[in-house]
Amino acid sequence: MARQVGLPVKVVRHWSDVGVVTPVGRTSGGYRRYDTAGVARLHLARTLRDLGMGLADIRAALDRENGLPEVAAAHVEALEAQIRRLRTHQAVLRTVTRRTTHEGLALMTRTAHMSPDERRESVHDFLTETLGDLDVPHFREGLLAAGSELPEDPTDEQVEAWLELGELVAAGELRPAVRRMAEYAARQERGVRQTSAAEEMRALTDTWTAHVREAMRAGTAADSPAADRVVAGIIAVWLRSRANTDPAVVADGTAARALLREQLTAAAEPAVERFWQLLCVLGGRPAPAGIAEEGRWLVTALRANPAPGARDAVLARLYADGTDPWPGGVLHAFTRVQDTVGALVRAAAPEQFGLPTPCAEWTVRDLLDHLVWENIIWGGLAQGTPPTVGHTEDHLGDDHIAAFETAAATARAAFRQPGLLDRSFGPAPGRRVVEQLLVELLVHGWDLATALGRDRDLEPDLARAALPVVREIYGGLPRTAGGSVAPARSAPEHGPVLDRVAAFLGRRVPEDRVPEDRVSE
Questions:
Q1: CB burial class (10 A; 0-12, 13-18, 19+) of residue 425?
Q2: 20 to 30 Å CA-CA from 382: which of 40, 164, 368, 408?
Q3: Are 477 and 223 in contact (CB under 8 A)?
C-alpha cells in the first residue's frame, strides 16, 4: 500500500488510525490489508493533503456523498482568505520599504499593535454589530464592501487609511455616531442612491458650507443674533431640496430648524466624517473636504436660534432693562478694567508668547492679539466705522504694547462720545456695547493673568457685578463645540469672584493661586 500510494508506512498507519482509510482485514502476521477502494481513498487523501487540506477536512470529503466538491469549495475560500492575509502583509511591507527608517518603524509598530486578521475582523464586527437589525441593506452592503479589505494592489495612502480605520474603530467613539446615522437613514427611508439625488445632496452641502465659511471668516459667532440671518439663508435652500424629508415643513420655523439640526448632528460628527474620508480613500475615490467645523458652527447656530428671531427676542428683553449694575457706572468700570488689562499686556514679554492659556488652543500671543481685536471691533462699532480687517489677521505686529494701547485709546475715545450710552446700536443701547467690551476684557484679563502666573483676582468689586450680568447674557447659550461658551466648570466659593465668572464661561480654575506680584501695586 505504501509503495503504491507513495507515502511512508507510518503515514499510512496514522491515517488508518484516524479513519481516513479503513483496512479490510489483517494478515496472519498482523499487518493491515486494504482493497482497491482503500488505495483509491489514500491516493485522493494524498492529493488533498498536498493542496493544503487538514485531515479533518480530508476525512469529511471522503466520507460524505458528493462531499469532495463541498470541501474543495470550502478549501478554496480558506485559500483565498490566506491569500488576502498575505497580500495585506505584502502591501504593508512594500509601504515600509518606501519610507525612511523612522517612518517605516512607526508603520510597523502600528501594524504590530493589531494583526491584519484582527483589524479586518474588528472592522467587520463593528459594522455588523453597529447596524444590527436596521433595515438599511444598501447602507450595510456598501459599508462592508468598502471597509473590510484592502484593495488588491493598494497605494501607500490606502494602506495608511486601512490601518487608521482599524484604529478608529478600536477606539470606540465611532460606534454610537454611526448607529445614530444609520437609524436616521432607516427612519427617513431616503432614496439618495439615485445619481441625481446624490448630486443634489452634494450641491446642498457645498451651498451651506460656503455660507457658514463666509460667516466664520467675518467673525460671526454661531450663537449670536447675526448667525440667525445665515441660518435663514441656508434654510431657504434646504426647504426646496430632497433633504427636507417632511412634506409638512414648508417654511422657516421651529420644525424646519429642528429637522435640519437632527440631520447635521447625524452626518457632521468628526469621527463619522473621518470614517467616510477613509472609506473614500480605500475605494479609490477623492476624499471630500472636511465639514466638521462648519457643521459644529451651524448646529450651534440652530440651537441658539431655534426659531427666526429667537436670540434677538432674548436680547431685546435684556436690553430693555435700563439699570446700570456697575460700581461708578459702566463707563467708569470699563476704564478701570481696560487700565488693569493694559498693565498685564505690558507685563507680557515676547519670550512668554508661546505659553498656553485657559482659552483652548490659544497661546499668550493669540490672546494678546484677541485683546487688541476686541478693542478694535467694539470701538469701531461705537464710532460708526467697523474695521475693514478680519479677526483672523495679525493685529499685534512687532510691538504688542503699542498695538494694544492704540486700539484701547481709540475704543475709550469712542465710548466717551456725548450721548453714546443712550444711542441705539440696532436693538442695543450704547451702554450695552461698552458693557460687552468691559466683560470681554475682564474675562480675557483673567486668562492672561493665569497664563502669566500673575494674580488673577482682578477688580473684585467689578467681578462681583459681572457675575449676574454674565449669567444673564450667556446662560441660555448652547455649550457646544461650535459656540462661544464652553460647558461651565466649578470654582471654589471662597476664591476670587472672577474665578467664578471664568468658570461659568468654561475655564478651568487652577487649584493653587500663587501670585507673582499684585497688578494694582
A1: middle
A2: 368
A3: yes
User: Does residue 434 contact residue 331 with C-beta atoms inside 8 Å?
Assistant: yes
Phi/psi at 490 (5° precision):
-95, 155
CA-nearest of 389, 387, 393, 438 to 412 is: 438
Using CA atoms, how far apart are residues 367 and 504, in angstroms rounded to an integer? Answer: 19
What is the per-residue pLDDT across 361-370, written as a single tens digit (0 to 9) for each?
899 999 999 9
Lowest mean pLDDT among 28-37, 70-79, 412-421: 70-79
What is the per-residue DSSP string for 157-198? HHHHHHHHHHHHHHHSSHHHHHHHHHHHHHHHT--TTSHHHH
Instruction: State the Cα–Cα distance between residues 303 and 234, nearest whole angstrom.
Output: 15
Residue found by looking up cell 481696560 in the block:
338
Greater confidence, 80 or 224? Answer: 224
Query: What does the pLDDT look like over 263-313, one tens digit per residue?
Result: 887 666 677 777 777 777 777 777 666 777 888 899 999 999 999 988 888
In terms of Cβ atoms closer than 10 Å to its own Cβ (0-12, 13-18, 19+), residue 60 is: middle
> What one-letter code names the amino acid at 268?
A
Degrees, nearest 5: CA angle 374-380-386: 105
| DSSP bridge pairs for 424 | 429
| DSSP of 266-289 | HH--HHHHHHHHHHHHHTT-PPPP
2-16 pLDDT per residue, tens: 888 888 999 899 888
pLDDT tens sequence across 424-456: 887 788 898 999 999 999 999 999 999 999 999
Q: In Å, how far are 18, 20, 221 from 213, measured between CA atoms?
A: 72, 72, 12
- Determine the Cα–Cα distance for residues 20 and 38; give it in Å rounded to an integer: 9
Distance CA 116, CA 127 (A): 17
